[in-house]
C-alpha cells in the first residue's frame, strides 16, 4: 500500500523558528501529529538565510523519518514562521528560498510572532506581543489588514526584551557600586548571582572570559526579583518595559481601528510568560485604559501550534481538527535534534 493511500488526511508542515530553538511538526488535516522534532535556533538574521534553510531542511527530514515516511510523500502545505523575518524584503527572500526546497505543494512564510498570535486565539481581530530575548508586535483585523513594526532594535525605536533588561540590570549595578548612579539592590544581587564578591569582579570576569557572556540574559530574572522586593531602580525599569509593551498594543490597535472593538491580545516570550505581577498588572491596566473591550491572555502552548492552525485554516479543515491538534501538541514531546 502506498504512503498516500495510508493517509486519512492531507499532510502539512508547521514550523516555528526562533533565536534559541526551532519546532517542526508534521501533521494531517484531521489534526493528528505524525512527527514532532526540535532543533537549534533558525533566525536568518543570526545564522544567515542559507544556513537557516539548510537547518530547516534537516529538521523536516527528521520529522518525516519520525513519522516513518519517505521524503517523497506528498505534503499539501508548509506554514513557516521565523524570527528575524521583520521586513517585507526578508519575508520575500525567505519565501523564495523555501519554495525551492520541495517540502510542500504550497507555502506561507512570515514572522514568528504571527504564529504566537494564532496559537493564542481564534479571533480574527488580534494583536500579539512577544517579549523574550527581544521584543516585537504584530496585529491583524478581520478584514485582512495587518499591523507590524520593523523590530530591529534601537535603530527602529525598540526598547526592552530580556537581553536589554539584563543589560540594564548590569548597568545599574555597576553605576551603583562605583557611585555614578543611585543605590540599588541590583549591585549585591548581580554579584551574588555570579558568585562574585563585587560587581567589579563580574565586569572583569565577563570582559576577560572567565564568566560567559551567554549568562548575561540571566540577569533579567535578577531584575524582576529585585523589583518584586521593592527596589526602586528595578521597579522603574519594569515600569518602562510595561509602558513599551502597552504602547505596542495600543498603537497596533489604533492602526487597525480596533480601539472600540473586542479584540484579543496574546502575550508570549519568556519575559511575559513568567507572569511577573508588576509587569503583568501594569500591561493589563495600560491596555484596558486604552481598549476596554480587549481580552488579554498569556500563551502557554508552544507557538508552533499557531503555525499548525494556520495550515488547517489554509486546508479548510473541520473545526474538530484544530481542537485535536491543540490537544496532541499539548501532550506531545518533540524529538530533540539539537
Automatic annotation (TrEMBL):
Return the protein name.
Kinase
Pfam families from the UniProt entry: BcrAD_BadFG
Question: Which PANTHER family does its entry note?
Answer: N-ACETYL-D-GLUCOSAMINE KINASE
Keywords in alphabetical order: Kinase, Transferase
Which SUPFAM superfamilies does the record cross-reference, listed alphabetically?
A: Actin-like ATPase domain (SSF53067)
Occurrences of domain ATPase BadF/BadG/BcrA/BcrD type (ranges)? 15-311
Q: Name one GO molecular function term.
A: kinase activity
Amino acid at each position: 500500500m502506498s504512503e498516500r493511500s495510508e493517509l486519512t488526511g492531507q499532510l502539512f508542515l508547521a514550523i516555528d523558528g526562533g533565536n534559541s530553538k526551532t519546532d517542526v511538526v508534521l501533521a494531517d488535516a484531521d489534526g493528528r501529529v505524525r512527527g514532532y522534532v526540535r532543533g537549534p535556533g533558525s533566525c536568518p538574521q543570526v545564522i544567515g538565510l542559507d544556513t537557516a534553510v539548510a537547518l530547516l531542511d534537516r529538521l523536516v527530514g527528521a520529522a518525516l523519518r519520525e513519522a516513518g515516511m519517505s521524503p517523497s510523500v506528498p505534503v499539501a502545505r508548509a506554514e513557516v514562521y521565523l524570527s528575524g523575518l521583520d521586513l517585507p524584503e526578508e519575508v520575500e527572500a525567505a519565501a523564495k528560498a523555501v519554495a525551492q526546497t520541495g517540502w510542500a505543494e504550497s507555502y506561507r512564510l512570515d514572522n514568528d510572532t504571527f504564529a504566537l498570535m494564532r496559537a493564542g486565539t481564534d479571533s480574527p481581530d488580534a494583536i500579539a506581543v512577544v517579549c523574550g530575548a527581544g521584543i516585537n508586535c504584530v496585529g491583524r483585523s478581520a478584514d485582512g489588514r495587518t499591523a507590524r513594526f520593523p523590530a530591529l532594535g534601537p535603530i527602529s525605536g525598540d526598547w526592552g526584551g530580556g537581553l536589554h533588561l539584563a543589560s540594564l540590570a548590569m548597568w545599574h549595578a555597576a553605576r551603583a557600586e562605583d557611585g555614578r548612579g543611585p543605590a540599588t539592590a541590583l549591585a549585591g544581587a548581580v554579584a551574588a548571582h555570579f558568585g562574585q564578591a563585587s560587581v567589579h569582579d563580574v565586569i572583569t570576569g565577563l570582559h576577560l572570559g572567565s564568566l560567559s557572556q551567554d549568562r548575561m540574559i540571566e540577569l533579567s530574572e535578577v531584575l524582576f526579583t529585585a523589583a518584586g522586593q521593592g527596589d526602586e531602580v528595578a521597579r522603574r525599569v519594569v515600569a518602562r518595559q510595561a509602558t513599551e509593551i502597552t504602547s505596542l498594543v495600543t498603537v497596533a490597535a489604533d492602526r487597525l481601528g480596533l480601539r472600540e472593538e473586542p479584540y484579543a491580545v496574546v502575550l508570549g516570550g519568556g519575559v511575559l510568560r513568567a507572569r511577573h505581577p508588576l509587569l503583568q498588572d501594569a500591561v493589563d491596566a495600560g491596555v484596558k485604559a486604552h481598549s476596554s473591550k480587549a481580552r488579554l491572555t498569556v500563551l502557554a502552548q508552544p507557538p508552533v501550534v499557531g503555525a499548525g492552525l494556520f495550515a488547517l485554516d489554509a486546508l479548510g479543515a473541520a473545526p474538530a481538527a484544530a481542537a485535536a491538534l491543540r490537544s496532541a501538541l499539548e501532550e506531545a514531546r518533540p524529538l530533540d535534534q539539537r
